[in-house]
Amino acid sequence: MTDDKIRKLLEHVSHGDTTVEEAYEKLKDLPFEDLSHTKIDHHRVLRKGLQEVIFGEGKSISQITDIVRAMREKDLDILVTRVSKEAGNELNVLFPSGTYNTDARCFYIKEDLSIKGKGSILIMSAGTSDIPVAEEAYIASMFFGNKTERLYDVGVAGIHRLFQHLDLIKEARVIIVVAGMEGALPSVVGGMVGIPVIGVPTSIGYGASFGGLTALLAMLNSCSTISVFNIDNGFGAAYFATLINRL
Amino acid sequence: MTDDKIRKLLEHVSHGDTTVEEAYEKLKDLPFEDLSHTKIDHHRVLRKGLQEVIFGEGKSISQITDIVRAMREKDLDILVTRVSKEAGNELNVLFPSGTYNTDARCFYIKEDLSIKGKGSILIMSAGTSDIPVAEEAYIASMFFGNKTERLYDVGVAGIHRLFQHLDLIKEARVIIVVAGMEGALPSVVGGMVGIPVIGVPTSIGYGASFGGLTALLAMLNSCSTISVFNIDNGFGAAYFATLINRL
Amino acid sequence: MTDDKIRKLLEHVSHGDTTVEEAYEKLKDLPFEDLSHTKIDHHRVLRKGLQEVIFGEGKSISQITDIVRAMREKDLDILVTRVSKEAGNELNVLFPSGTYNTDARCFYIKEDLSIKGKGSILIMSAGTSDIPVAEEAYIASMFFGNKTERLYDVGVAGIHRLFQHLDLIKEARVIIVVAGMEGALPSVVGGMVGIPVIGVPTSIGYGASFGGLTALLAMLNSCSTISVFNIDNGFGAAYFATLINRL
Amino acid sequence: MTDDKIRKLLEHVSHGDTTVEEAYEKLKDLPFEDLSHTKIDHHRVLRKGLQEVIFGEGKSISQITDIVRAMREKDLDILVTRVSKEAGNELNVLFPSGTYNTDARCFYIKEDLSIKGKGSILIMSAGTSDIPVAEEAYIASMFFGNKTERLYDVGVAGIHRLFQHLDLIKEARVIIVVAGMEGALPSVVGGMVGIPVIGVPTSIGYGASFGGLTALLAMLNSCSTISVFNIDNGFGAAYFATLINRL
Amino acid sequence: MTDDKIRKLLEHVSHGDTTVEEAYEKLKDLPFEDLSHTKIDHHRVLRKGLQEVIFGEGKSISQITDIVRAMREKDLDILVTRVSKEAGNELNVLFPSGTYNTDARCFYIKEDLSIKGKGSILIMSAGTSDIPVAEEAYIASMFFGNKTERLYDVGVAGIHRLFQHLDLIKEARVIIVVAGMEGALPSVVGGMVGIPVIGVPTSIGYGASFGGLTALLAMLNSCSTISVFNIDNGFGAAYFATLINRL
Amino acid sequence: MTDDKIRKLLEHVSHGDTTVEEAYEKLKDLPFEDLSHTKIDHHRVLRKGLQEVIFGEGKSISQITDIVRAMREKDLDILVTRVSKEAGNELNVLFPSGTYNTDARCFYIKEDLSIKGKGSILIMSAGTSDIPVAEEAYIASMFFGNKTERLYDVGVAGIHRLFQHLDLIKEARVIIVVAGMEGALPSVVGGMVGIPVIGVPTSIGYGASFGGLTALLAMLNSCSTISVFNIDNGFGAAYFATLINRL
Amino acid sequence: MTDDKIRKLLEHVSHGDTTVEEAYEKLKDLPFEDLSHTKIDHHRVLRKGLQEVIFGEGKSISQITDIVRAMREKDLDILVTRVSKEAGNELNVLFPSGTYNTDARCFYIKEDLSIKGKGSILIMSAGTSDIPVAEEAYIASMFFGNKTERLYDVGVAGIHRLFQHLDLIKEARVIIVVAGMEGALPSVVGGMVGIPVIGVPTSIGYGASFGGLTALLAMLNSCSTISVFNIDNGFGAAYFATLINRL
Amino acid sequence: MTDDKIRKLLEHVSHGDTTVEEAYEKLKDLPFEDLSHTKIDHHRVLRKGLQEVIFGEGKSISQITDIVRAMREKDLDILVTRVSKEAGNELNVLFPSGTYNTDARCFYIKEDLSIKGKGSILIMSAGTSDIPVAEEAYIASMFFGNKTERLYDVGVAGIHRLFQHLDLIKEARVIIVVAGMEGALPSVVGGMVGIPVIGVPTSIGYGASFGGLTALLAMLNSCSTISVFNIDNGFGAAYFATLINRL
């Protein structure tokens, strides 16, 4: 119930068009219904832009197809993450205006090409094996309307490669650094720049990498000050970077 | 804002004693203020009975003393858990009507001696070392007005001791079983009765007991169906048993 | 050996129909044989109602079919949990009076439709991915004769959805809250009501959710007082809620 | 060596004032000396503002005193974190213009009172026990020149308290949410707003909280999209929020 | 080189049939060659009886077949553990004198039926799901010539079943108790008898059983004094029980 | 109630000296009372010998003193484990016939010097730091009447020291091997002998030894077949070895 | 940019052939470009020899084939690790000069047969199941031009087998010891020799071996002084041993 | 028994000076006694140089003093690690020729100042808090006669500091890199040089550093190829580097 509706209701009471008891009944459920409508409107504006994102994992191809079709009927842009290759290929056929990115395992239809953030978001990856997570972040960042750059395979074992691209690093407004194994790259990048750096550990590695736990712990203990997301959560980092970039 | 107040406000609007805008302003914050007052009143009745419980850990003696004094001025019963021996002795001197239980590390003043629950709560412990946690549960259960029984040192390594007290076990309405080390007693009790059994692991043990983790995991994996609380959380189990006993 | 049988035996001894030695031999094994028959009868009444529940995991289709057929010959209601889709479909064909629920992975035949508990049990889930575990709890709760309600997809990331259903929450006698990922919903619900809240963590999540460990730990550390079951143990929570609801 | 210096050196070579070999010697060490001076200047501007922060843990009182005295001779503002009460009292006596905050365990001298960030940073805490970590974040945020607000003791077990302060929440540009035990508050806040939310787990809790690990894991698995810092790292979160607030 | 050979060599030296240097060369490698022959002969007697045991995991069907064939040519009894059903069926066809036990996943040929140990070994299992590990222990115990008894499905959730078989328990010389989930049965059995009890945790369980870790930890922390083997190591427990039974 | 008492009771019934109802009342509690008296007598014989052992940890000096005094009045031998140096010194003064062993942290009075086991128990330690746990095992083994030998500081980093004592190793009937750090010694010993080897991990080590967890895991995964006890549980191993040695 | 180029550039400036601004532009990127060319040349010489090693895991057969073909066109030797049997067979057909080692899961083409290290590297394995990791180390060591020996299946459970090969052990310059399960062999070897011993834990084992974690922890806590690599990282150990052997 | 002694014994047999039986008795214990004398002599040469190292942790001041005094009587150099400040001060007084290093917690007397290794060992530390572990490595490296350099406080958060000291890095023969928190520095250094890099994680950090576990895991998963030692094991790394440097 929006503010306008409350005012109108009170006017009806004031004018005797509504009895006190009728108004009371309508107001009784106000606290909770109202919550999403009135109080947190700034949030809703943003969520509106993001609500077309579907987490594809655990959904069947037909479930995904139904959702995409329903949204396309409203001409909404849409992003589906964690889409299997099979589902991606089928979506490509059914919705020719869309794109399936095999690395990122994302399918998206994006017709609104306007840039909404104030600067650019840079997505970095330590190794080539980390690229799928980095690409998920890249697709999501682009989908949310950010100018987005990529700088891949610049891990700390060959630190000179990193320095060859200082310009790109200096130009970003937010940096997302994706790394598996020992997860050291975000620390190095975080020590080089004075802008927010977001670390995303990946499950890349074997043995004592424990499915990304090592990279996660390393980033949480970084002597640089970086913020951290869950293992393989490229999408989350891009969402968060978008919130910063729109400030 | 209670329902009565809302009705009155609407009547004022209806009678023209309050303008629409004034009423709107008062209603604007309704959702959240109202939440605690109106909607969850059943909860409040109970919380009222429990809100005098203070978690003493991390509080100085003078902080605890101030709280107890303030509540005594309103003639409220009070329970303070996790009270050090030093603080307990000082509270005993300052508030002679209260009792400090060294094992349970609890101080309480209880003048309302009425029994509120429908049946009795039985507190069992596996070993003598588990008694402090069991006693915390016992004090809390009593404080909340439950008829409460105790059956200590009946661990599975001497299973015959357990069977010598079947009557006590059969008469309970809810059973709290406190156990450290391998945490097996709740499984055995849970297999013997048809009433809710609540397991509380303790940090008693050494080496691979990992501060109670082993007992906790054992209870969570019980082949009997028992519900589990955090390590050493005797108070929580008693609170939960109270909720059941008052149903 | 029931009490009656013991009395009869003693009478035979008293009348000289049985020698002391014969009676002694029969009594020698009394302690343990007797245990299940006499002493814990209240439990047996309940277990009787529950003993038709079969844990399907690790059993072949033909094993399950044999058990179901045997029980049907005695006209017993039956619930089989953790049944694969293949087995479920075959059971559906063989036992047309039964129902296989794909989400819950449960097959059941329930002809006794009487309500046995005193209030209603509410099953809540945080996300749509948690529904399979919630449905296992729902099917089991229903099967045990409880009035059972459902409230799904009301996780803390959209807390306003939760508040839109306060009535349902307030009407329950016991609430089971199923949640994966950060497992926060039981804490919020536990803080809103004054009745027993049971948390069931699910294995839903990825990366640092560690197969449900994160949700489990979060529930055990809840600042609300909730009791906790093993990861994905929807059945256990329903069994426990049934014990409470029948008190 | 700044760009200007390089240009001047080249001009000297061009004019014959410097020999090739002399210039070569000076340039030889350019790559690394230069790194900190020229290339990452945006960073340095910020670091300049932050380099007066001293991590006090593991340093003796006299070591801390020496550092503070040296910086005061240059009239620099200074913040020392993780300072024991003993050291804090001594610093208070030696440097009367400074302030020691017992909760935050921080000592600071701040004469530059200008506001540098664009909006306000809100520091929230779930429980009263989490306040030390929240205060560390508060002191640091203030020290870095941010308008900073506080909202403490609004944990999810009494969710209505949170909603009573929606205005404060809506007005922030960045929110830091500090929580121990089950670490659920950041998820709830993250679901309510459309701005960056930073979670800081605390080591508050006992038993299966494992020194903050549970809260940390919960935040990493949040179904809201929040970024996470190390356990008890209030300072790091404030530093990161400052970077965002200055964008 | 056996003692006899050393003596003979010395005699050859003494008689001048062998030069000092020749003898020295032969003795040079004595320390290590000798180790297995002379010094630890008691062990060898036993190992001789056990050396025909093959760990089948990771070996191809043809590798296993080759080993079995080679040993059969020497008329040796043989036990192969961890054999897949496919391999087992093939072995059954190729070696009709052998037996493949599907539950235990063991194939064995045993023609020496003499009993070698002094008493009987009792194998107990808590649940029906633990039977494969129990059967591995059973087959191995039998294969090593022990009188072996079985008592399955006597877990602590129905403790009365355990007591119905006290005779069997009292007659054993060594007891192996196999249990998954909370692993409580060995504690109960260990508290009932005055003979060595060996606990074998199984990987049976789900969620917080962590592949048998919970049962393992529970057994290690038993308040009864039991010795523990690795998860699912039924063979190891039987080997160890055999060592005891032959004393 | 012993067997004799049951027979007498039946005779009284047979002779009419006791009514059926009176006998029934006496028999009603038979199952559980009887359990400890009749059924598990073999156990009791052993327990009798062991029941004078007191776990001293967590008990005050006066509590320990009271127990020792009470037992001495019955002329019972007694062993108290985990006794602090302070308590040990006081016990030495109060009970001059007793001995306090500082390394083992055990106090014992032993007047019955008869040897009860059939062979000797050998206690080995890997390093000098493991001696306290080894000594606890040694004292307990001796106290239970076993011929007991010691072989300390023969860890795998200097494997030749181990081989210099093969005679001692070959003569034992049971071997207890105590080792911290990497816990490798039991594997080596287990591979050398054909008798039961019991591994006791110690909490000796630092860093990734995790308080003995590494040694514990190493022993559980031994390629030799050894049985394992909890970290630092020298007493348990000695108790178990005693059970074997008395067979 | 090499030193010579910098000197030449300065000479051009000195002679007026290059303007200051042109020179400045060329020097601007010096720090980072230079890094890889000038400063760490010793490293590059070695990396040159090793850069043909491809980590095959996660790469498709056609990706691997493309890389191998490209390198063969430059006549470079090549090693691909972690190659599936399918890919290996295909590579064997396409590149007949190469070899696929099934155990090691490595494919390599090696035409430069010169020996580059100063001594020999010995690869030891504890069990036959550890051979795949040992063979990866063996192939890599050979590929890098080291004289390489093998000594397999000499685990601590049969320590005499180890001593039968002391000559081989004494002749090595570096020893790599590969072991799963309890990971004890490197400790024993490390105690026997005065040269660098490198431990490689393997994921071989079951239950509480936790995928190699136990072996890893054991090696890290070795009372001998050995250096440790990640679980199953045979290649890394060989690379590291090569660095030592070339010193 | 050395080779010479064996030869002599055989000659005595050959000459009839010793009977076969006498010689046999002497040879019987040969395998194990011989082990330390003959077979592993290269090792002994080194161990001789190292055997004066005492691990001080857990030893009383008087125990340490006794050992030092005994060794000084033989004029042996000596190093005691993990010495408390109190013990260190006392040793300084008693042995004026020795030095106690407070940071390293080491006491040593070193009169043999000859350099034994072929190159220099460089000890690096990431932060100032890691210096105690680095200093332990430094003292040990020096004590073993290596030319040893130090480069402290060059962690990855300020990567430019590292590059300012490339010369030092390039000149080393072996590098030990000590780092806590995220443990990233060894990866960066390992990627820069072509010589053996040894990583030593430290227990420095808080929260999710878990006492050095994070740094340890990071180093084990390094994308550079480095070898790793236990947490805080500066001495072990220095010993290992010495073995390499003496090759």
Give structural attributes:
homooctamer; about 250 residues; alpha/beta; Rossmann fold; 2 domains; five-stranded parallel beta sheet; four-stranded mixed beta sheet; globular
Written overview of the protein:
Eight copies of one chain form a homooctamer. Chain A folds into two domains: 3-109, no CATH class; 120-245, Rossmann fold. The first copy, chain A, is an alpha/beta fold and 247 residues long. Chain A has twelve helices and nine strands. Chain A has a five-stranded parallel beta sheet, with helices on both faces. Chain A has a four-stranded mixed beta sheet with strand order 1-2-4-3, sandwiched between helices. Chain A is 47% helix and 15% strand. In chain A, α11 (213-220) links the parallel β8 and β9. The B-C interface holds B 35, 39-40, 42-47, 118-119, 163, 166, 170, 173, 192-196, 198, 216, 220-221, 225-230, 236-237, 239-240, 243-244, 247 and C 35, 39-40, 42-47, 118-119, 163, 166, 170, 173, 192-196, 198, 216, 220-221, 225-230, 236-237, 239-240, 243-244, 247.
CATH class of the largest domain in chain A: Alpha Beta
| Mean pLDDT, all residues of chain A | 86
Strand content of chain A: 15-25%
Task: Estimate the helix proportion of chain A, in percent.
Answer: 40-55%
Largest sheet of chain A: 5 strands, parallel
If you compute it from the alpha carbons, what radius of gyration of chain A comes out, rounded to the nearest whole angstrom? 23 Å
Q: In CATH terms, what is the fold-level topology of the largest domain in chain A?
A: Rossmann fold
The total of helices of chain A stands at 12
Largest interface: B-C, 37 and 37 residues
Oligomeric state of the chains in view:
homooctamer
Q: What ranges of chain A have pLDDT less than 50 throughout 5 or more consecutive residues?
A: 29-49
Return the string of H and E elements of chain A.
HHHHEHEHEEEHEHHEHEHEH
Number of strands of chain A: 9
